[in-house]
Amino acid sequence: MTAEEVAEELMVSQSKISRLENGRRSISQRDVRDLCRTYKVEDKALVDSLMQMAKESRQQGWWNAFGDVPYSVYIGFETDAASLRVYEPQVLPGLLQTPEYAEAVISGALPEAPQDQIAQRVQVRLRRQERITDPLAPLRLWAVVDEAAMRRVVGNSKIMSDQLDYLVRMSHEPHVTVQALPFDMGSHPGMSGQFTILEFSDESDTSVVYLEGVTSDLYLEKLSDVQSYSMMYEHLRAQALNADQSRQFITEMAQEHARRHQEESEAAPAD
């Protein structure tokens, strides 16, 4: 059977089959079970053995040291990716977050989560950021960020001011581009929500579009889907401020939060 035939049988993309065969994507026990059915493997002992191997193989990523990470599939893609194109309408990009901002974001998103779970997720996020500073193969990151994400007070005004200053500093890295999308740019193709396009150095690996959900995530690998989101991203980049204008815009946002923090400090009653 060709990879195309297998993909059609399992109703998945051909690139997924190619990644599994080349060891470029971790394989789940469900993948093994479905492939064995497709290949008509009837030896139950062999199938069970392969499924056990699949379970053990998924424990090799660095993120498994942090326990059960719900978006481990995405982290695997991100770890292998050569570049990311990100659009964020509500929060600042995870790979460019300060520890304080990350903790405030996660705490707000998971109000009933215990503190140890929040701390675990913060540590995973900070570990992911090492790809940005990797001296040998830094991740190429292009982020378009909506003004709403910069104005939303996550944590407090001091955290926001520090976070936006950090965003400006990171935007000076040669492999990091940050563009601000102000409110007065009006409607745009990204109004339906956040998305990330992951691209890989191996030409046999097609790009993947990642859509984050509350209880489950969506990965789009069909060429037509990737092309649609890539076109959306080009329109977003065209409507957003350029890199220099964005730094000025973000700096002004940081100064606004800093002034608010100063006013709040002065208004606070003395002990």
UniProtKB/TrEMBL annotation:
Task: Give the domain of life.
Answer: Bacteria
Pfam families, alphabetized? DUF5753, HTH_31
* InterPro entries membership: Cro/C1-type_HTH (IPR001387), DUF5753 (IPR043917), Lambda_DNA-bd_dom_sf (IPR010982)
HTH cro/C1-type domain span: 1-46
What is the annotated signal peptide range for this record? none
For this entry, the protein name equals Helix-turn-helix transcriptional regulator
Native source species: Streptomyces javensis
